[in-house]
Design goal:
By secondary structure, the chain is of the alpha/beta class. The protein contains eleven helices and eleven strands. A hairpin with a 7-residue loop joins strand 1 and strand 2 (13-18). Helix 3 (83-101) runs parallel beside helix 4 (118-125) and helix 4 (118-125) crosses helix 5. The mean pLDDT is 96. Hexanoyl-coenzyme A binds next to helix 2, helix 3 and strand 7.
């Protein structure tokens, strides 16, 4: 399918749309795709476009080159910031992770190398993480006299459990992809050459289903994890009710009963 050039003026992030998939690529390979404030602003613009473009059904987030997804926040930039500036920039980075996490469409992190500090945090905000065999993960902030600030203290324990999360955060240790897979930080490990094709295959499989069912499933999991089980169940029941009133539910159930493939419209 033809590629649509982005109208956005971005310097540090590549943004491209091909058919139903948008590709967001961190593009500062000389500094291992370090996440400056400009990168976070450009990620915000790209993901807002992907969210608002109804032709986009899912996003692949990856890094340029074959060495890094992102080696964390830009340490040169961080080295001169005051406490007040750092609090502000962390809130900015956190807002971007929340945008990605609650985009209403699946976002696959295709981790193609180092995912450290803010890089690991960005990957954790994605719906699904797959990684190449050379990928490495860690939260090395304590080695720099700081701590995770783009959601690491919240998303890491939710993904891999409190004990393992605290060990990674407090030791600053870097783990290889097999260990990341073993502890559930990544869903799949694939050869680097298969990384983007596998991300596309997962998105295509998800995209064959009803958009509302996909969107509300993501919402129910995300919002449910923010509160108690009974609050989560209430959210699930409400969203289930909305899905069940949709035209796509009529189509999905009648297609099943008529033994034919469903044609979902997203309504
Ligand atoms: C700025 C960085 C960088 C970073 C690497 N570079 N990581 N620049 N910020 N986070 C630069 C290096 O200075 C170097 O520039 C070039 O990229 C290549 O890196 P090398 O260190 O030479 O590569 P290598 O020896 O292979 O080591 C790879 C590495 C190491 C293990 C990933 O670069 C590293 O430890 N990076 C820092 C990782 C880190 O601490 N991240 C957490 C940041 S704090 P030159 O000019 O020498 O070629 C954080 C907080 C998030 O993320 C808070 C929320 C926003």
């Amino acid at each position: 399918m033809a590629s649509t050039a982005s109208a956005l003026q971005l310097q540090n992030v590549l943004y491209e749309k091909k058919g139903p998939i948008a590709y967001v690529t961190l593009d500062r390979p000389k500094v291992l795709n370090a996440l400056s404030q400009a990168v976070f602003s450009e990620l915000k613009a790209a993901f807002e476009d992907a969210r608002d473009d109804s032709s986009v059904r899912g996003v692949v987030l990856t890094g340029s080159g074959d060495k890094a997804f992102a080696a964390g926040a830009d340490i040169a930039e961080m080295s001169t910031s005051t406490g007040v500036q750092a609090e502000e920039s962390t809130r900015h980075a956190q807002a971007v992770t929340e945008l990605i996490e609650n985009l209403g469409k699946p976002v696959i992190a295709a981790v193609n190398g180092f995912a450290l500090g803010g890089g690991c945090e960005l990957a954790m905000a994605c719906t699904i993480r797959i990684a190449s065999e050379n990928a490495k993960f860690g939260q090395p902030e304590v080695k720099l006299g700081i701590m995770p600030g783009a959601g690491g203290t919240q998303r890491l324990p939710r993904l891999i459990g409190k004990g393992r999360a605290l060990q990674l955060i407090l030791t600053g240790e870097m783990i290889n992809v097999q260990e990341a897979y073993r502890i559930g930080l990544v869903n799949e490990v694939v050869p680097l050459a298969n990384l983007i094709p596998r991300a596309e295959a997962i998105l295509n499989q998800i995209n064959s289903h009803a958009p509302l069912g996909v969107k509300f499933s993501i919402d129910a999991v995300n919002k449910g994890l923010d509160g108690s089980v009974s609050e989560g169940l209430l959210i699930e029941a409400s969203l289930f009710g909305i899905c069940s009133g949709s035209e796509d539910k009529k189509e999905g159930t009648s297609a099943f009963l008529a033994k034919r493939a469903p044609q979902f419209q997203g309504r």
